[in-house]
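in:
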């Protein structure tokens, strides 16, 4: 596994983490799928993706329960990121939400606590004050945001007095590249890590590709002895400041995704893909 520095900190995180949206949901728990999902996460951890992203709202908190099952006995060596929901951004509610996440995750600290979505009805200063209190109390190590625009990211940075903003988690993949216009350059300049969500377009890179795109990915994949998915993920993590968090419950998918790190596309091949997916 390769690593990148988180924000302006001295902490290194794996370039590939494990997404958990849908994990612990009703359909999986009815089928006894929790253990299967925890197993898939454990496989990802064993393959070096020792970074898990979850949220208090995923499966109404149940994803965090499954994460706790997966990291049991290995907490210290896993980087856990979770999120506080947009409706819980007042000072008191952030503190309360964090307590809930800590309980479900069965841990005394969260490595990265992220604001899931901005909420214009609640001053960001209140939210960030609570975040800094959680850091001061040792309950949170790093503060991040998610789905924040450049302007909202700036406001969040300015609202922090003792900490720096470590990350912004946003949608980014070869088929969804909106952040390249202004947000990605801003984050690179400000040393804010971009955590790319839906990095394989929810598994639809294949279906949504036009024939020429499909052929380009296939030709590059063949050249490196990799799969198209691995090329699509590697293209992302080759970008400065970007890490990605694909979600996979299927163990074959977990293995395939883990194989997207540990090597790099040559710049000419990155450019070829960028052009094909413009
Ligand atoms: P994604 O990771 O792009 O795609 C997940 C889907 O792709 C699943 O259906 C998975 O199937 C399938 N898949 C995984 N690896 C594959 C492979 N190698 N080949 C073929 N199919 C594969 O989408 P996502 O779940 O939306 O995003 C990833 C994570 O980002 C989430 O789980 C969540 O942690 C985070 N996220 C955050 C936000 C936010 O607002 N901050 C929003 C969306 C997502 P199986 O599960 O069957 O393996």
């Amino acid at each position: 596994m390769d690593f990148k520095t988180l924000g302006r900190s001295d902490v290194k995180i794996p370039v590939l983490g494990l997404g958990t949206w849908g994990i612990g949901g009703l359909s999986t728990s009815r089928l006894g799928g929790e253990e299967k999902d925890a197993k898939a996460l454990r496989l990802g951890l064993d393959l070096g993706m020792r970074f898990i992203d979850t949220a208090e709202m995923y499966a109404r908190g149940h994803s965090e329960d499954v994460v706790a099952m997966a990291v049991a006995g290995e907490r210290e060596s896993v980087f856990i990121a979770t999120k506080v929901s947009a409706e819980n951004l007042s000072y008191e509610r952030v503190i309360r939400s964090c307590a809930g996440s800590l309980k479900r995750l069965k841990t005394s600290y969260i490595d990265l606590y992220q604001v899931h979505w901005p909420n214009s009805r609640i001053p960001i200063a209140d939210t960030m004050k609570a975040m800094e209190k959680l850091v001061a109390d040792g309950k949170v190590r790093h503060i991040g945001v998610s789905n924040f625009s450049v302007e909202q990211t700036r406001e969040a940075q300015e609202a922090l007095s003792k900490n720096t903003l470590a990350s912004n988690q946003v949608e980014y993949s070869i088929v969804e590249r909106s952040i390249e216009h202004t947000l990605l350059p801003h984050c690179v300049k400000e040393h804010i890590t971009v955590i790319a969500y839906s990095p394989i377009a929810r598994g639809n890179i294949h279906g949504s590709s036009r024939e020429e795109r499909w052929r380009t990915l296939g030709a590059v994949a063949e050249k490196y002895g990799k799969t198209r998915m691995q090329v699509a993920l590697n293209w992302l993590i080759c970008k400065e400041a970007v890490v990605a968090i694909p979600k996979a419950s299927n163990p074959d998918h977990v293995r395939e995704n883990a194989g997207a790190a540990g090597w790099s596309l040559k710049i000419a091949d990155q450019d070829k893909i960028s052009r094909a997916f413009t």
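note: The chain is about 45% helix and 15% strand.
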